[in-house]
Please model this.
Amino acid sequence: MQPVNILGDKMEIAYYPGCTLKTNAKEFEETAIKVFEKLGVRLKEINKWYCCGTVYSLATDNLMYRLAAIRNLIRAKEEGYDKLVTLCSICYNTLKQTNLMAKEDEDAMYKINSFMDEEPDYDGSVEVLHPLQILNEMMDEVKAKVKKPLDKKYAAYYGCLLLRPKEVAIDEYENPSVMERLIEALGGSAVDFPLKNECCGSYNVACNKEAVIDANYRIITNARKNGAEAIVTSCPLCHFNLKEIQKEVKKAYPDFVGLPVYYFTEIMAMAFGVKK
Model:
């Protein structure tokens, strides 16, 4: 996808953290705020935000499930923003799909706006973005901020929710490359990694851990065979599955050799010389 001047002349953008960025993925948020500050962009956390709903409902009549996402979009609009950025892949997908529904399904939005009679009506006018879409336009600025080139081989792992369905994809959904370009801009090498949009097993980690173990064995082993010395991702759930399950993968597959797993903002912080 070609850059489309996302920020324009604005260097502050509304930021929706979501729940995990305040708990298990604090390092993701902390490094993101710092590296974007280095690039001259302020991520302004919106006031009184709510859980996004976790995963966008596939049931077309499940409008109640979308109320929280709509409320977050209303909060951003109330504060005067027409764009809202979120780091978590799951939050991004949920907010983005909900916003598309707001633009395209008048009947659904009539019901939602009528139900939320104490809230102002919402019309889909807040654009939902992922930070990688902003960085896609700032690669020259990223290169200029590098103090400690990475000098390492990384596998960019996108998972599912940044790319599916294709209507919400942050890049070419079959063969994305924005994270690879970021890795190269930071002085690292991006390896050819055919499983970069393979599912990590997602929430099966809670009910079918064997499936997650098998998926992560394939993904991490493939990354290593293609020369990767580490994996880079954007999704807190993918990060958890790829990183925290490695001990159990080793028990199931004695030949398994793990890899370090980082958020893309963590490797940016490394290259920028930013302390966590």
Notes: The beta strands are 12-15, 42-45, 83-85, 127-129, 153-156, 189-190, 230-233, 261-263.
